[in-house]
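One chain shown below:
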Amino acid sequence: GSEDEKTGSAESKSRQQFHADRDAEYLLLRKRLEELEKMEEEEENAKSENIKSSKRLQSSGWSKGFLNSKKKTTKKACSIAGHQ
């Protein structure tokens, strides 16, 4: 009977260790997922802020020059390029 008790005790300890390892791994994964969610939120906020500042710049007159994608070249640029 003594050997059965030792084997049962060893199985119980290994089972407890397995659960402890699994719980630790779960906590690490959970923490990493929370970090990723936070990073995604920050990225979304940065994108929306970039769009807002881009619109602000364009409305402030920056769109008249090189930042305006609709105008491919200005008259000055054409005349300078033609004289080279």
Remarks:
- The chain has a mean pLDDT of 77.
- Residues 8 and 14 are 10 Å apart (CA to CA).
